[in-house]
Write a structure and sequence with these properties.
It contains four helices and ten strands; from the N terminus they run βαβββαβββαββαβ. By secondary structure, it is α+β, with helices and mostly antiparallel strands. A hairpin with a 2-residue loop joins strand 8 and strand 9. Helix 3 crosses helix 4. It starts with a strand and ends with a strand.
Length: 159
């Protein structure tokens, strides 16, 4: 059974967001097929192209035997356990879990695109990725550090 490294973007801006992210990380740690789960610090950021209160964001780094699509199903199940509803694109949410990276894999299906197609534009993703040691990751033919430098104006503070 081979293992992969997957990075999961995590965010919440409804309810007790910190507690929800902490519970989501614990749920990932208890998931069959997840060997290890580490979390970045939590960050506060404003919603992007959406209404609602500020977000609490983090990134989880997983060592897993789950393939990308079963991992996505796991993420959706954890979101549902925390009351995630999908009323409209970018709606405020109790929990959002996005598969950002899965080893060096690049692919696109109707339900999943890896690497995540907008991750390189979001300081609230890039800062926690850097914290977890992904600074040398290449996204769309540019190092993560270059993308992060381009996002320096986005408010995203550790909390």
């Amino acid at each position: 059974m081979s293992t992969a490294t997957a990075y999961i973007g995590m965010g919440a801006n409804l309810g007790d967001a910190k507690a929800t992210l902490t519970a989501a990380i614990e749920a990932l740690r208890r998931t069959a097929g997840v060997i290890d789960a580490q979390s970045s610090s939590f960050y506060c950021s404003d919603p992007v192209d959406a209404p609602g209160p500020p977000y609490v964001n983090a990134v989880a780094k997983l060592t897993t035997t789950l393939a990308p699509l079963p991992l996505l199903q796991t993420l959706r199940a954890i979101e549902a356990q925390h009351g995630r509803e999908r009323h409209f694109r970018n709606a405020p949410r109790t929990l959002d879990l996005d598969l950002l990276l899965y080893d060096e894999l690049k692919f696109s299906t109707p339900t999943l695109v890896v690497p995540h197609p907008r991750m390189h534009l979001r300081a609230f993703v890039l800062k926690p990725l850097t914290e977890l040691g992904a600074l040398n990751t290449v996204i769309q033919d540019r190092p993560l550090a270059d993308w992060l430098a381009a996002c320096q104006e986005q408010p995203c503070e550790p909390i």
